[in-house]
G protein-coupled receptor 146 (Pundamilia nyererei), 333 residues
Amino acid sequence: MWICMVYNETDTSVDFRLCRDFGLILSILSLIYLLVCFPLGLCYNVLLVVVNLSNKVSMTMPDVYFVNMAIAGLVLNLVAPVELLSSTFTRWHVWEYNNEVYITLLILFNISSLVIMYSTTLLSLDYYIERALPRTYMSSVYNTKHVCGFIWGGAVLTSFSSLLFYVCNHISTKMVECSKMQNKEAADSIMMFIGYVVPALAVLYAFVLILRIRKESTPLDQDSARLDPSIHRLLLASVCVQFVLWTPYYMTLLVHTVVVAPGYISSARYLPIYYFLRCVSKLLAFSSSFAMPLMYRQMNKNFSNKLQRLLRRLHCRDQSCPRERSTVQQVVT
């Protein structure tokens, strides 16, 4: 429930008015997201997945990672309306959910965030491998598909440890085993380290390697041309956008673990500001579910051709159309 409830309803103080203003701003932002960003993200994520899976032969290593991020984006699209229509985000809430629903939404959100961050990280590392060792096919589509499967498995296992802390934080303290684990800050610390610190360091390392190999000309440089040059720009843009949108959320986890939970911020004056910033940071994280497919649609030169081939196949399904000759180079998997 919105933190302004800590004030008396008849209170006319500056702090109460500020809290009410925060609630109004957050309600408007949530409504804008639901009316604009949510349908765009849903449509473009579905389109990205369907178009690429219908053209499996022409899929490249980056395409597999972006499909993986699009599926995670669809999970965020499932979570977003349930949370944004509750009293936590809007004054005009439609429903209230119990602790069980809260934990389910949180776990789905954590799994999606881990999949998105690690897909971005491994895309950076595989791009370096593709540039450094183009003849080895270590970063082939076949290998990337298996890697994406491990990403989802690892995200579920990582979220399971956090799930234990969250569940024990919401049930009775009579259970001795759970009473020792009632520490939500521990779950936030796990997510902060595994979901942000590790991917950030890995991406930084990958970018150092990519910059080094771009400066050093090698005899294999001509083979790296089998990667579309636009992929480098798409990689830079995707990494920057993902970290810009997800960093505020993970910073609020850090603040909650280090400052809020131990009680360093106990004044009612600062709590509304913290919860407002936390909700805004989660809105930014939800925004990654539509920012990424839009960017992929605009910056990937082959996407339009794949979409046109799919539309032609759908048009020719009930007609006798001549066999289409694909001009896309097949990738060895």
About this structure: Residues 83 and 89 are 7 Å apart (CA to CA). The chain is about 70% helix and 0% strand. The first helix runs from residue 14 to 53.
